[in-house]
Amino acid sequence: MSEIISSGAALVVVDMQVGTVANARSQPADRLIVDVGRAISGFREAGRPVVFAISTGTPPGITQYGSQGRTWPSTDTELAVGIHAQEDELIIHRAAWSAFANTKLHEHLTAAAVTEVVIVGIATTFGVESTARSAADLGYDVIVLAEAVSDPDPAGHDRTLTRVIPALGRVLSLGG
Asked: What's the pTM value of the predicted model, to 2 decimals?
């Protein structure tokens, strides 16, 4: 784990919340929680920032699946059992695909001199990929930890990890 955590790295934990962990299929929820927990512990031990991004709903607009702009019940936006934020860690709430969209995440990371974003969470093809794309667009080095992400669609998960993320940054393993 120490080889992943640079002096300019921050961990962004995407949507590890009550309303989303049940959608973990490419990596089962219980295993995902353990691996995300390992990443969180590693960053804390290294004294590096940990940020929790919580989805509160969907952005406005019409999609193939109907109208958007939905808001999740507050019980769905609580961190999943086994995932805990410390008092000094940033929790951002958003109703957008990327953790950077309409939040203060970029400003927070800039103030902390972060140059590298390590992303974990769910869903690989939604919040994780969108956050990775935004991070790359903003000039961050991007790492996604393979064991610490999951998706409802195993084929989409694999495509994101083998085709999309390598074009934006790196896919690495938690190791050990």
From this structure: 0.94
